[in-house]
Structure formats: C-alpha cells, structure tokens
From TrEMBL:
Transmembrane segments: none
Xref: SUPFAM superfamilies: Acyl-CoA N-acyltransferases (Nat) (SSF55729)
PANTHER family documented for this protein: O-GLCNACASE (PTHR13170), PROTEIN O-GLCNACASE (PTHR13170:SF16)
Domain N-acetyltransferase: 1-196
Record CDD domains: NAT_SF
UniProt-recorded name of the protein: N-acetyltransferase domain-containing protein
Organism of this sequence: Actinocorallia longicatena
Length: 196
C-alpha cells in the first residue's frame, strides 16, 4: 500500500481528485466551468494551513487523499483571514445560484460553519476522497486510521466529517470505522468519532 505524506507537487492531483469525486463521490468534471473551483473550496485550504495532516495514495499517480484540520474553529478563522479574501476578489458573490459554479462562489463568500455541537467533543475534522481505482482496497480505512493516530498525537479528543446525503455509500463505510451520525440537514450528514 503506497501511502505517503502530501508534497507541494501533489496539489494539482489533489484538486483533480476533488473534482472527480465532487458529485456525491462521483465525477463532477462536467458540472463545473472552472475545474479548480471545487478544489479551492474543499481541498486548497487544508494543503496550505495543515499540510502535516495530508496524506495521499500514490501508486505511480495520486489516486486519493485524506486532509484534516486538528482545530476546526481555528481553521475556519484562518480561512476567513488568509484564504477566502483572495478568492472573493477572483470570484464575485453571485446574485443567483443557478449553476454549480455559482453555488461554490457563494460558499467562498458565505462559508459554512460547523455546527457548534460538534466542535466541543470533536474539534478536528477530515476530508477524504478516493478515485474508483483506489476504492475497495483498504486505502480509505488505512488513511483514516493513520490520520486518527496523528490527530490523537496532536491532542485531539475527537474528529468529525461531513458528506452529501446523496452519497449513500458513505454512512456505512464510516460506521464500520466507528463513526456515528451526529447531525444532519438537507445539505450535509455529519458523523463523528471519539479519539480518547
């Protein structure tokens, strides 16, 4: 199993995987006019602010990754100060939300905040994506197990994640890894796990 820590030259591959898994786990390439936009929202800030918690699956090419922030509130604050401002200049706040690009632009201008009830017991969060070639081979389990050890070593008592309710394969996978559903709305299912 070829897992290694993220390197700066992996950024393009991570953005590409984010796009190719951006439709509730399926390929979203045909949804977006700007193929980097989804990566700017869901991958880029982790690579910049928490690269030590980024691991990739590399089998001659990068096929997947796990990204994390040990302190969600600190991460959100840092994004507000150092990540979103430049993107807000590049991507104007759209008056309508008719296209997938416009919906992501709105996220740039009005980022989602993690529910308060999650961050108390589960202050860390993760984001994982694997291309089909890397799925069903134990990579996801191994990536998350290693990340949990890293977060535990960093002093985190718990971790959470969110996914699109349309991704019906996600909940059974995370449940097998010891996560439980902690919250839900029409856009996100939140699952959490204690690390202590």
């Amino acid at each position: 199993m070829s897992l290694r820590k993220f390197r700066l030259d992996d950024e393009h591959a991570v953005y590409d995987i984010c796009l190719r898994t951006g439709r509730a786990g399926a390929d979203a390439t045909d949804l977006y006019e700007d193929p980097r936009l989804i990566g700017h929202v869901y991958a880029g800030p982790y690579l910049r602010f928490a690269p030590q918690f980024a691991t990739v699956v590399d089998e001659g090419q990068v096929l997947g990754y796990v990204l994390a922030a040990p302190d969600t509130r600190e991460f959100e604050a840092r994004c507000e100060e150092e990540w979103w401002p430049a993107l807000r200049k590049k991507y104007p706040n759209p008056p309508e939300l008719l296209t997938p690009d416009q919906r992501l632009m709105r996220v740039i201008h009005s980022p989602h905040r993690t529910p308060e009830g999650l961050v108390g017991d589960y202050p860390s969060h993760l984001h994982i994506d694997l291309l089909p070639a890397a799925q069903g081979r134990g990579h996801g389990r191994t990536l998350i197990n290693r990340l949990e050890d890293e977060l535990r070593d960093a002093g985190s008592p718990g971790v959470h994640l969110g996914f699109d309710p349309a991704n019906t394969a996600a909940a059974p996978f995370y449940t097998k890894l010891g996560f439980h559903e902690a919250a839900r709305d029409e856009w996100v299912v939140w699952m959490a796990k204690s690390l202590v």
